[in-house]
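Please fill in the sequence for the structure shown.

STRUCTURE ENCODING:
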């Protein structure tokens, strides 16, 4: 997975900040790409993963670490993955903290039920429930997911937002000009190629903006294309509706990613019930237009840092057009978004909250 890809990037930054605070993390993962390996090597963070992607190799690896971790470490921190609940259930010797970015949505949401159910069958669903309920502390990234977790597992989670690494995305250190008046007539959408990211929704919305001022749509995928048929549909839809679109199908360098955010008039977020949104666009004083649902309601302050609208293509188009027509307002929203990011979504705050929440847990367990 690419480190620009939302939650993955945030978790890598979390490890970096924990190391800086004097903790000694070790990362166990079923897969780590070369980019992340280099980051961990540079940080002096040890990591371990299976030798291959075979199911047998993964199971051998999980069995090994289930015995190793309780002997060598003070606490086990899990991030959401299909195998995490198994380990949580059997690793009872040390405190278990589960950062549940989102429950396996395929089990619980009507528009996803039945999709790829060969992997996520009813047995896996029960394992997920048993393992998650066994965690000593469940952390999550938004109030929306906290409520979701209670409905699914009957457990109260603690919100510990995934922050943005303000050092990594410091426009001054990167030498990037974030002046709003110099931006291109482009809007950006960041997300893997999958129907859940609803890139087609943006295309349908742009149809309602008059051609002379209609912006180009730039889609940054972080090199992750989960659905080739959907990718084909996006291209065909854009051609049919005469929408100028550029899709970055492959990974782009960090500086290029940052430049794209800084040169766009706004970021469009149409994701379907996305559990949380890490508002990295604010680091470049770029306002956000989002569908008013799930985690986006918490990352965007309506009419302050961006605009929230119903899931309606005409309303979405109207919000985009309003910011295009009112650059002074858009620039002020970007400025306020930047301040909001520093105050509420910095990685420093994420780590501060994480340490506090784990300390409370340990104090409770040691009584």
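FILLED IN BY: designer on duty
SEQUENCE:
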């Amino acid at each position: 997975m690419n480190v620009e890809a939302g939650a993955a990037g945030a978790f890598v930054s979390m490890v970096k900040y924990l190391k800086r605070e004097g903790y000694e993390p070790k990362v166990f993962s079923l897969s780590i790409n070369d980019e992340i390996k280099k980051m961990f090597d540079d940080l002096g963070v040890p990591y371990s993963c299976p030798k291959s992607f075979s199911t047998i190799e993964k199971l051998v690896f999980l069995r090994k670490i289930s015995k190793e971790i309780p002997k060598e470490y003070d606490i086990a921190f899990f991030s959401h993955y299909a195998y995490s609940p198994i380990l949580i259930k059997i690793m009872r010797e040390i405190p278990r903290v589960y950062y549940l970015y989102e429950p396996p949505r395929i089990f619980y949401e009507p528009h996803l039920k039945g999709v790829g159910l060969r992997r996520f069958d009813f047995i896996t669903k029960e394992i997920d429930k048993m393992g998650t309920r066994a965690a000593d502390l469940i952390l999550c990234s938004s109030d929306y997911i906290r409520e979701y977790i209670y409905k699914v597992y009957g457990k109260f989670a603690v919100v510990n937002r995934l922050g943005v690494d303000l050092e990594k995305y410091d426009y001054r250190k990167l030498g990037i000009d974030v002046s709003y008046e110099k931006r291109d007539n482009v809007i950006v959408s960041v997300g893997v190629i999958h129907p859940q990211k609803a890139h087609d929704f943006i295309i349908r919305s742009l149809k309602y903006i008059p051609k002379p001022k209609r912006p180009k749509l730039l889609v940054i995928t972080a090199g992750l294309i989960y659905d080739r048929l959907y990718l084909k549909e996006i291209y065909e839809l854009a051609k049919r509706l005469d929408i100028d679109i550029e899709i970055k199908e492959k990974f782009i360098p960090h500086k290029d990613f940052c430049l794209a955010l800084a040169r766009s008039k706004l970021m469009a977020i149409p994701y379907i019930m996305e559990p949380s949104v890490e508002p990295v666009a604010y680091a470049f004083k770029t306002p956000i237009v989002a569908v008013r649902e799930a985690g986006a309601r918490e990352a965007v302050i309506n009419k302050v840092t961006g605009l929230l609208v119903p899931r309606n293509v005409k309303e979405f188009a109207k919000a985009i057009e309003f910011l295009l027509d009112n650059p002074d307002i858009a620039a002020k929203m970007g400025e306020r978004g930047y301040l909001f990011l520093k105050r509420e979504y910095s990685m420093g705050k994420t780590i501060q909250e994480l340490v506090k929440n784990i300390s409370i847990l340990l104090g409770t367990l040691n009584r």
